[in-house]
Amino acid sequence: MDYKTLYSKSIEEPELFWKEEAQKLAWSTYPEQILKQNENGYYSWFVDGKINMSRLALEENIKAGRGEQFALIYDSPVTEVVQKITYNQLLEKVSRFAGGLISLGLSKGDTAIIYMPMIPEAIVAMLACARIGVIHSVVFGGFAAPELAIRIDDAQPDVIISASYGVEINRQINYKPLIDEAIELTLYKPKNIIIFERPNHIDDLSADNVHTYNEMYQHQPVEPIEVPSTHPLYILYTSGTTSTPKGVVRDTGGYATALNSTMKYFYDLEPGDTILTASDIGWVVGHSYIVYAPLIYGVTTVIYEGKPIKTPDAGAFWRMVEEHKIKNVFTAPTAIRAIRKEDPEGKLFQKYDTSSLKRLFLAGERCDTSTYYWLKEISKLPVIDHWWQTESGWPMLGICAGVENIMPEPGAAGLPVFGYNIKIVDDEGQENDTREEGSIVIQLPLPPGCMTSLWRNEHRFIKGYFQQFPNHYLTGDGGFKDENGFVFITGRTDDIINVAGHRLSTATMEELVSSHPDITECAVVGIKDELKGQIPIGLIVTKENASKSEEEIEKDLIALLRKEIGGIACFKTSIIVSRLPKTRSGKILRKTLSQIADGTPFTIPSTIDDPTVLDELIHEFSRRNVGVAFAASSI
């Protein structure tokens, strides 16, 4: 079957297409009702089916004879540890840990927050929750205590599962103090905490409600509990345009069906292959392609606790390819740009035997053509950029490598993936002509595996994603299609910026910046960065009696955002300006600010209150050498 045939069937006969894909999984109760529309006009898949994700990932592989195959390869250059865990061994850990959760009173429908570094025990916790129907919410270990606290209050977990510390190159981040600080900030107080004790930890674990992994592993193994296909597997928080996080809810059966289909059709993998997805389990890429998709498909997945560079060098990925016979590497363009900066001639790629490597997949942000061509040149392999979101859970644009060998279009995010009826529309919802930029929307029904709601906020779910264009999902991204159907992503249509593959809200940053006692008004916008794709900068208007200098305020703001959001915010620059560009109705022209810094041609908005403010801002950008338009290096 070629790409066009596969794609057309998925759009024209979605129920038949996904019924056949669902039949490839081991359901305890096979669904008879494939697709159902609810009163809000949204759709659910496989509503009468029953399934368990942990059983698919573990027992079904063992039944297929893969019990002694490695399920996980933990590669940690920061701790100098390589550990390999078979499917049999993983089942033992997961089933006992699940027994431990039951002993603490957890049951189907309860919630758990997992705040862990990239270690096997994080995956044990995820699968143990799934085994007994507990809804997990993994929080990225790089988030500071206030961000963790927000998620605790929203998810209201019965337990927080964590580890003694994470390691960032040569720096240890102790997690238990961050958890304690977060709980001090919350209204909701979790009943229990479980800590994986890493070597040489300094944690105080004496409290009655604090437990260890060793305690959990002493419990008797438990069998998986079959749950409805629509039962939430997890909540994953993503940046919103307000300070309230959006908890994307993922179902079980639809997600399993979609992920299973992508392993062959999209990533061209077979059971027994090995994949390195160099991301973090705190992000959707980690959920889908470090944990669930590889394990339900019988693929060995590498858990990498390290960086693309400096652990120890820019050859880290290629060293793992040689050692673990990796077939696919999936990472972000940011990682490749960092590798290129350290090893511009690709000598470290040539140092290792990478003959097992067949394809390189990039996602998380737009891949610039320079990075694409560099990676293709040093590897002599297909490089496939693709695009998707936390909300989708799996690729929406890309090249279905396991279906047909189609040459990617450099700079494009790819062709629509099976199941996604993607359109480019104008403000009235009418489809645009070829190469005419507009909003990217997807006609309903979305395929299985996409979000089913926002946690405890159905109103926001419908209003934010489906109200503007009825019967369509609003992606929040803009773009255009070329003559061959390839879709090019041009950027966000809201205030979310993409920093090294991390989606961060500038609205949240503005709230923090504006809290400084010397600042009366501010705007935080994303500007182009050679390494990270985008970074935030702050434009601030100070009070007349401000007591601090521009440099002093900048230092204060850097420290504040690092404390409240974490180092991933990459906030390093704030510029004092006399005023901000606004429309006559008082809206700040953030897009125009980004365009000035990026050197992107722009039309002065007809609604601007005073066009002369733009000349003032150009002067300020130039004074500080901020933005690619003013020849500054923001790396």
Mean pLDDT: 93
Helicity, as a percent range: 25-40%
* Overall morphology: globular
How do the strands line up in the largest sheet? Answer: 5-4-17-16-18-19-20
Strands, count: 32
Distance between the termini: 45 Å
Judged by helices, strands and strand pairing, the structural class is alpha/beta
Beta-strand share of residues: 15-25%
Count of DSSP-assigned helices = 20
Low-confidence stretches: none
Radius of gyration: 24 Å
Largest sheet: 7 strands, mixed
What is the gist of this entry?
It is built from 20 helices and 32 strands.
Furnish the topology, listing elements before pairings:
Layout: H1 3-12, H2 14-22, E1 35-37, E2 43-45, E3 50-51, H3 53-57, H4 59-63, E4 70-76, E5 81-86, H5 87-103, E6 111-115, H6 120-131, E7 135-138, H7 145-155, E8 159-163, E9 165-168, E10 171-174, H8 175-185, E11 192-196, E12 210-212, H9 213-216, E13 227-228, E14 234-238, E15 246-250, H10 253-265, E16 274-277, H11 284-297, E17 300-304, H12 316-324, E18 328-331, H13 333-342, H14 347-351, E19 359-362, H15 369-379, E20 383-385, E21 397-398, E22 415-416, E23 421-425, E24 438-443, E25 453-454, H16 458-465, E26 472-481, E27 487-492, E28 496-499, E29 502-505, H17 506-513, E30 519-529, E31 533-542, H18 550-564, E32 573-576, H19 590-598, H20 612-624
Parallel strand pairs: 4-17, 6-7, 6-8, 8-11, 11-12, 16-17, 16-18, 18-19, 19-20, 31-32
Antiparallel strand pairs: 1-2, 3-13, 4-5, 9-10, 14-15, 15-25, 21-22, 23-24, 24-26, 26-27, 28-29, 30-31
Helix pairs in contact: 1-2, 5-6, 7-8, 10-11, 13-15
